[in-house]
Amino acid sequence: MLALLLGASIAWSAAAPATAGQDVPRILLDQSPRAVEYQLGRLSNDQLVRVERRETDEKYRPVYAAILTRKGMARPLRAEALAVLVKMDRASATRVLLDALGKIAADDRQNADSLLDMLLEQPAETLRSHREMLAQAGADASQPAVLRAVYGGLLIADGDPSPAWQAAAKRDGHLVELLRSVPHLGKAVELRAALFVPIAALLADTRDAGTRVAALDALAWTRRDSGTFDILAREILRPSTAPGVTPSPSKEPDPTAESRAAAIASMQQLPESVWTPAAIEPLARTIVALVRETPSDRRTEPPTIDALQLGDRLAARLPDGPRVSLRRDLRALGVQVVRIQSIPEQMLFDVKWFAVQAGKPVQIVFANPDAMPHNLVIGQPGSLQDVGTKGGTMPPPADPDVKPYVPDTPLVLHATRLLNAGETDRLTFTAPATPGEYVYLCTFPGHFIRMYGVMLVVENLDAWEAKPAVPTDPVTNKPFASQRVDSAPKQP
Ligand SMILES: [Cu+2]
Predict the structure, then answer these.
(1) What is the dihedral of CA 347, 351, 353, 356, to 10 degrees?
(2) Cα–chain center distance at 278
(3) Element at 228 (helix H, strand E)
(4) Higher pLDDT residue, 448 or 252?
């Protein structure tokens, strides 16, 4: 029977060990709906996907409903559950997803966003045919996740921001959710670009702190150009009203820690080619000043890490003098942060190499925006082939707490979890004491051939900065031709 349960969709999944002999959790499906939900709710994700289920028998509906709405569930399993629920309920995918979104806890944003993406990835014609339903849900619902889906769906259905914007503006708290749907509009490139004007106007106009933050977050998803960069730069650079001075009610509100953090996070999404050169040094200096004001115990929190990382990228674009001094200031303020992403559909890391100082704290923020799962494993110099081959040929682990495809060898120094689409993991560690060209790679089977890079550990980063030496690509055995792959998505 186990073989029956291991469909193709879960055979590859990190969450579902495809090893024989695992127990199939027993669920008493003939109990009351609440009792069934309770039993399913107690299972780990791994156990939940092993529960018996049959798409032709409505008795198993609660199992599919639990898989669809479960936090951290792999996308193919959610898709399978959605397809079955659509058939069982004779309802549209839009309806099933709206109902599912209504059941997700308000603080479980990442889980809700996974379902939101499934809803908004439907073709515009499909969403258009459900326009009435979406508008009705917008009038009836109050859950933020449902409202995000409603306004995102209306925006795509109309291909024009105006009707959804006007509807949202009439109801308290709705415009914020419309703004929060913008990062999920995906391939609707022209629609996203068309949102630049109303969002920029809203930023100049609104006094509501939450709306400002949502607008700054959304802005990087509209147009990735210097117009967007300049608005974000202004939010970071403009000074707060001096203490003791009453702010003018006609002036836009002072930036807050939250609005600056949103502007910094948004700016991280923009390609460096749209940075306005004159703003680079003032921004880097302002970021140093902002981080200096942050208490040291809060400097490892994501907003400060983001600021340090952006400051470092800005400094890298400056001439020798200011670059060296700014980077020294940034390093003195906290851990060195390196942000690395997978590039969707290309099986590449966007960063090919980076330099860190021996014995100093480092944080790697690894994000996976790709549909495929990836990890990031750091290995000893020269270990790329060995770690990649050993990791990729491992069977998926039986223990859900074990990181899949990470070989148990001293060649491996650090490893993230295997990240599903849209997930992020952080590795905080002390850089090796011995300088050298350490490797990093994705050990998911077959990936390391393209997904690798070099962590260059140097004795003294300041000295290295003054005379940087490019490390050797461990596959071509030549110096790396560039440090980053330009991963900017197609521009509006
Ligand atoms: Cu990979």
Answers:
(1) -130
(2) 30
(3) helix 226-237
(4) 448
Average pLDDT over residues 435-455: 97
Averaged pLDDT of the chain: 89
Q: What angle do CA 397, 376, 461 make, to 5 degrees?
A: 145
d(CA 161, CA 163): 6
Closest CA to 178 of 150, 212, 209: 150
Per the CB < 8 A criterion, the answer to whether 408 and 398 are in contact is: no
Strand order in the sheet with 353-357: 353-357, 452-458, 436-441, 377-379, 412-415
pLDDT for the residue numbered 52: 92
CA of 330 to the centre of ligand 1 (A): 31
Q: How far is the CA of 443 from the centre of ligand 1 (A)?
A: 6
What local confidence, expressed as pLDDT, does residue 486 receive? 66
CA of residue 439 to ligand 1 center, whole Å: 15
Which string of DSSP letters, residue by residue, matches 28-88?
-TTS-HHHHHHHHHTS-HHHHTTS---TT-GGGHHHHHHHHH-TT--HHHHHHHHHHHHHH
In angstroms, what is the span from residue 450 Cα to ligand 1's centroid? 9
* Distance of CA 374 from the midpoint of ligand 1 (Å): 4
pTM above 0.85, yes or no: no
Q: What is the pLDDT of residues 3-39, one digit of tens each?
A: 333 333 333 333 444 444 467 788 888 888 899 999 9
Q: How far is the CA of 448 from the centre of ligand 1 (A)?
A: 7
Ligand 1 centroid to Cα of residue 156, in Å, is 31
Name the pLDDT band for 228 (thresholds 50, 70, 90).
very high
- Kind of pairing between the strands at 423-430 and 412-415: unpaired
- Which string of b and e fits 48-84 if b means at least 16 CB within 10 Å? bbbbbbeeeeeebbbbbbbbbbbeebbbbbbebbbeb
pLDDT digits (tens, 9 = 90+) for 254-282: 898 899 999 999 999 999 999 999 999 99
Structure tokens at 135: 């508008």
Give the pLDDT confidence of 301-318 residue by residue, as tens digits: 888 888 988 999 999 999
pLDDT 10s digits, 166-181: 999 999 999 999 999 9
Q: What tokens does 129 get? A: 């045919």
Residue 393 alpha carbon to ligand 1 centre in Å: 14
Å from CA of 437 to ligand 1 middle? 21
Element (H, E) at 361: strand 361-368
Complete edge-to-edge strand list for the sheet that includes strand 423-430? 348-349, 336-343, 361-368, 423-430
| Coil, strand or helix at 106 | coil
Closest to 482 (Cα-Cα) out of 474, 492, 470, 491: 470
Residues around ligand 1, an ion, CB closer than 5 A: 374, 442, 444, 447, 451
As given in the structure block, the two tokens for residue 481 are: 């031709």
